[in-house]
Predict the structure.
Amino acid sequence: MAETSYNQFCPVAMAAEILGSRWTLVLVRELVVGSTRFNELRRGVPRMSPALLSKRLKDLEAAGIVSRVQVPGEPETFEYRLTKAGSDLRPVIEAVGAWGQRWIETETSLANLDPNLLMWDMRRRIDPKPMPRRRSTIQVMFKDQREAQRNWWLIVEPGKPVDLCWVDPGFDVDLYLSTDLRTMTEVWMGYTTFGKAREANKLVVTGSKQLEASLESWMCLSTFAKIGKLVA
């Protein structure tokens, strides 16, 4: 898969030839957290071109890490699922992420703000169980972003996957979160808390008192947010 070979029999070198190509490890991250369809994977790697995504998926399939499976009843639709070899990469991805959370400086991470990636990550970490047993619509407003990326809607319905919209879905909004992209990312990554952001007037939450009171129970943070940083 890699453009050049290390020409070493060492398992680290051999694995790096498969996983070391640009975007490959990030793509595996998306597969590990549950994205299976091409468009889902695109939203998880928004800066990766569709052509390169397609190539990397073929490379992973050739390496025995991913299998391409037709969706029953949908002859033109395929899903990409991790094989046993691919599933064995879960602890590898988790370990790399934990290392990055501990050892990459905060400002270095915050130099890579991306509303698309943040909102897609937030979507899959929402826990509907503490929420009302009805449809709930949460609007996130990034006041510092251009119009096309300023407003996002999270739609949570019992028994359905959480939906993310960047075009107004037309539902009554139950809870509004008004903030800037950096603050929301800081909260999401565990660099600060909802409470501190609100005290500093960097995050304003309005709407349903029930959803507001239980915010920290249903809006789970990044998988790595609880890992303490060892650098500033």
